[in-house]
Amino acid sequence: LFVCIDHIGLAVPDMDEALRLHVDVMGWRLLHREQNQEQGVDEAMLGTGAQGDENAMIQLLAPLSPESAVGKFIEKNGGRGGIQHIAYRVADMDAVDATLRERGATLLYPAPKSGTGGARINFIHPKSTGGVLLEITEPPAAPHH
Ligand code: CMX
Ligand code: CO
C-alpha cells in the first residue's frame, strides 16, 4: 500500500527556534514553508535530497491556535514538542483509501483534504493504530524542472 515514509511530523511550540535547531544545527535543508488554515498549522518541510525527490522528510508543525490538533498535542505534552504523526506516502490515494476501509481501518476524514503543497491527505486515528497518529499522503504531481 505504502511507497515509503514521506515525513515525520514534529509538533514545535516555537517555529523560529525549531528552524534554528533543525537547519542551522542539524543541517536539514528548508524545502517549503506554508500555513494551512484548515489544519491549523504553520509548517516547514525539511529534506536532505533534491526537492521533489525527497524521502523521509521532517515536517515542523507550529500551532496557529491552542484549539488546533497540534496546539492540543503540545498542551497535553506539558507545553513541549514531540512526534505528532508519521506520514506514509501513497501513489494512489483513492485506491489506498478504499483498501484500508475494506480492511477495517477507520480514516479520520470521509474524503482526503489538502496538505503540504496541495498533497491529498487523510489520517488514521491514534486510537486505532496502537497510539500513533498516521497520515496517508499522496504528493502533488511532480513539479517540472
Ligand atoms: N498522537 C498520538 N496520540 C494522540 C495524538 C497524536 N498526535 N493526538 C491525540 N492523541 C490521543 C490523546 O493522547 C488522547 O488519548 P487519551 O484519550 O488516552 O488521553 C486521545 O488521542 C484524544 O486526544 P485529544 O487531545 O482529545 O485529541 P482529539 O481527539 O481532539 O484529536 C485527532 C486527535 C487525531 C483527531 C486530531 O489530532 C486530528 O484531527 N489530527 C489530524 C489533523 C492533524 O493532526 N493536523 C496537523 C498535521 C497536518 C499535516 O501533517 O499536514
Ligand atoms: Co504531515
UniProtKB/TrEMBL annotation:
The gene is mce. GO terms for molecular function: metal ion binding; methylmalonyl-CoA epimerase activity. The keyword Aminoacyl-tRNA synthetase does not apply. Keywords: Isomerase, Metal-binding. It comes from Propioniciclava tarda. The lineage of its organism: Bacteria, Bacillati, Actinomycetota, Actinomycetes, Propionibacteriales. Belongs to the methylmalonyl-CoA epimerase family. One of its GO terms (biological process) is L-methylmalonyl-CoA metabolic process. Pfam families: Glyoxalase_4. This is Methylmalonyl-CoA epimerase. It is an enzyme of class 5 (isomerase). Residues 4-139 form the VOC domain. InterPro entries: Glyas_Bleomycin-R_OHBP_Dase (IPR029068), MeMalonyl-CoA_epimerase (IPR017515), MMCE/EMCE_epimerase (IPR051785), VOC_core (IPR037523). Its EC number is 5.1.99.1.
